Amino acid sequence: MAKILAVDDSLAIRSMLKMVLEDAGHKVALAEDGVEAMKIARNRTADLVISDLNMPNMGGMSLVNNLRRLDHYQEVPILIMTTESGDYKKDKAKKSGANGWIQKPVDQERLVAAVTKVLGL
User: Domain 3-119, what architecture?
Assistant: First the structure.
C-alpha cells in the first residue's frame, strides 16, 4: 500500500483517482490545485504524487518545482497527468523534476499500471 497525493482541479478526475487507487489498495489524499497540494505536502509525505498539469492557482509544473524544494519530497516520484502530448511539455516536466507522464483520458488499467511501475511494486 502506498500513500498517494492526487492533484486535479476536476472533481470527477479526483473522484476517479481516489476510487481506482483505493481499489488497488492505496491510501489517497486529494487536492484541487497546487496550493492545496503544498499545504498537504508540508505536513505529510506521500510515496507518490500524481498531478494534473493545467490547474488554477498553481499548476502542475510549479507544484513539481515547489515539491522538489521540500527535503522530504526530493526523492518522491511525481507523475504529471494531462491531455497535452507535446514533447516540449514532457521535457519541461522532466527537467522540473517529474518522473513520468500519464496521457488523459486515462483508463483504470493504465493508471494502476503506471502507479505500479513508478513505485516498483
Answer: 3-Layer(aba) Sandwich (3.40)
